[in-house]
What does this fold into?
Amino acid sequence: MLHSFLNLLFPRTCTSCHQPLQLNEALICTDCRFELPKTDSHIHPDEKIINRFAGKVLLKHVFSYLKFVKGGRTQQLMHALKYKGKQEVGLLLGQWYGAELKQLGFDKEFDLLIPIPLHKSRLKSRGYNQAACFAQGLATGLEIAMSEDTLVRNHQTVTQIHKSRYERFENMQGVFELKDVSFVRDKHLVLVDDTLTTGATIEACALALLEANPASISVITAAVAY
Ligand SMILES: [Zn+2]
It folds into this structure.
């Protein structure tokens, strides 16, 4: 009774399907949770994901948690995370995926999670880095460290969509800077982002990290657009 009354005043709805949440549910309803379109790319390596970096930068693992389909559950979640201030969505998805990865022993393959940084002006206008929210959740689930100040973004890039591969590469030169070389040397690093599209931004970050001679670089994203 009280629950339905409170729900009338302050409707709590699922971030994904927008149906009312039960008392024991938070952010994402049980139906959506069990029907999340997982890629399982950490179990069956997915060439459509891995090939975005083939011949560009050597990565140990490339995992994406969810498939991004237009109008689907993942799009709703990523939109809420990126544009509606729902930082908790990133944390929750990161915790879920981190726990799955830890169960399979991946915590032993990684030392440090590094979210793709935002430029400080973008960080100021949005108030948070959505990739860092997902990375924070992964850090909790995997029980490994994360660092937000190792890699910084020096300038904001213009949209990449209409650029050729070479133009995109040029556009990315010098955008990312490694602040602490000795901190990442010989470590197994994981670059973390919200949605994997062309991979050009992640590639530029990986190239910046390589200058410090890490033991390896992997990539984990919350979603992947095919
Ligand atoms: Zn739902």
Observations:
- The longest strand covers residues 216-225.
